[in-house]
Amino acid sequence: MKKIILLVLMLVVKTSFAQLNNKSFKYGFVDQTGKEIVPCKYDAVEAFLSGFAVVKLKDKSGVVDRTGKEVVRCIYDGVINKQNWIIVSNKNAKTQYLVKSTDVLLSKKYEDVKTLSPEITAVKLNEKWGFIDVVGEEITPKYDEINDFTDRFAVVKLNDKYGIVDQIGKEVVPPIYDRVQNFKEGLAIVESNNKYGVISEEGKIVIPVEYDMNFYFSDRISIVKLGKKYGVLDNEGKEIVPVKYDFMVLNDDLIQAKLEDKYGLINKEGKEIVATKYDLIESFKDGIAIVKSNGKYGFIDKEGKEIVSPKYEKADDFVDGAAIVRIPVGK
Asked: pTM of the entire structure?
């Protein structure tokens, strides 16, 4: 009687190592041409994932590739096959991670891993983080932290200082700052000793690290503070409104400026459209803002024109084309 060899094609395995319930068989893999790519010698197998499959032999687990090579020997108590890496563990030993690079399993074992982007994997070794690029090259782990890549760049931490690296590990912004925001529209805001500046993707200092307020670019301009005065810079560091005002804030798409307790309005090209003459300018609603002068209220539009000169004791915002105003009885 011929000895029958059972070849098992594992298309779907719903339960890990379900085959262990039956000791009568050995398991392997065949490809779609019928070729046996993994010999039927294992007590259990799991389905392939990203080029690798977990196998089990004598209660120990390992990993095979699609050529049938046992790339991780069956010496581990536990093996977990993930999309981008493989986790191996033994009792009373630290869990270790092996990183996949296309169809290659890298040989070095790491203490931890995380996905930074579809192409980049962060790896931890000796309590330091580095990363492995799309072709499997390791950028030597040396950072205390690596954040996720955003548009080709990641913020890194080293000795309590922050910088930015690109996907080939080049330090675009060296880790010398107290805080760094990742690049947005080609610019990164940095902080050192409670002062702020801006750096470009080429590593060029666009705005010196000397301002006292964090930048927030809106339509390519930012309000800045130097000492106790405010001004406006564009995102190339050019001063479009002198740093001379006592306070500034965005009011819709205009800049509201305060000088000697009076308020005015400046557009984003730096042109003063309303002189600093009002005691109060409220937020624009539907293109109209309430203003106050000498204790009286009126309205202006975004061109600075007084729709109603300040003459009322009180005024409310326009609703459905009309605004409530009031005057004292007998006036």
From this structure: 0.73
